[in-house]
Specification:
Blueprint: E1 2-8, H1 14-21, E2 29-33, H2 46-65, H3 68-80, H4 82-91, E3 96-100, H5 106-120, H6 125-134, H7 136-143, H8 158-172, H9 178-185, E4 192-197, H10 200-206, H11 219-239, E5 243-248, H12 252-263
Parallel strand pairs: 1-3, 1-4, 2-3, 4-5
Helix pairs in contact: 1-12, 2-3, 2-7, 3-5, 5-11, 7-8, 10-11
Length: 267
Amino acid sequence: MKTTVITGLDGSGKSTLLQRLSVHLAENQAIIFVPHIPLEGLETHPELLEAATFIHTLSHQADRTQTPALKAVALLASMLVFRELVELKQAEDKSEFFCERHPLIDTVVYARFYLSKFEEATFDPVSVEQLDARFPEALEFLLGLLPAGYVEREPESPFTALMGFIRQWFFVEKRMSLTDLQALFGVRLPDEIYFLKADPEVLDARLGERAVREAHEQLAVFRKLDLVYEEILGEIEAKSQTQITVVNANDPANLDQLFRQLAGISA
C-alpha cells in the first residue's frame, strides 16, 4: 500500500488540489479526507457513517458556538477513524491512497493549539446529554477504537468519556511522540508527504471571505502552527524514509504543477 499525504495549514490549497485529483484517479487509487469526511460511500457501513455524521455535527456546532474544545474532539475523532477508512478502501481493492492530513502529522500540530482551549473548557450538561442521546452508536464505536484501559466498560456519559481520554492522553500524559501516536491510531508513516507551505499572511487573506472561521484560523495562530509543522516534519525526516517535499503554496502555479504530477498529466 502506498500512501501520499497532502498537508498544510487551512487555505494552503489541499482540498482544492485533492478535489481536482479525485476525477483523475486510477481504479486502484482512493482519497481519504479528514477531518471533513465525505458521507458518500459509507451508506453500507453504518458504524462509519454514524461516526462521520457525529464528527460533522460536532464540528459545525463548534464553529457555530465558537467552542474550540468541541472542535478538538471532532478533530481527534476523525483521526481515530482514519485507519477504518483506509481499511474500507482496501476492501474495495484500493492500494494507493492520497490523504488530506494524517493522524501522525496533523494531530500533533492542532493539539498544540486546541489543548489550551480544552483545559479551559466547560460544557453545558444538557448539550452533553443531547450528544449522548443522539449519537450512542457513534460514541460507542469511537470509544472502542481507544487503547484498552483508558475508558470504563460502560461509561455513564460516552461523550464525557471521550473528552476524558483526550484530556488524559494529550494534556496530562502529553503522549504526542511518533511512537505514542502510532500506538493510538494503529497506522504507519506515509510514503510521501507534500507540505503546502504558504505565508501566514497569504493564508489569512485567502480565508478572509469565509463567513465563519475555525478557532485556529487566525494570523497569529498560523505563524505558530507553521513552526510546529516544520518541527514535526523535521522529526519524521530524521527518523524515517518518508519522502518529504515542501511546495511553495503562495503561487497557485506550483499547486497546479503538483496536481499534474500526481494525476500523471503531461505538461
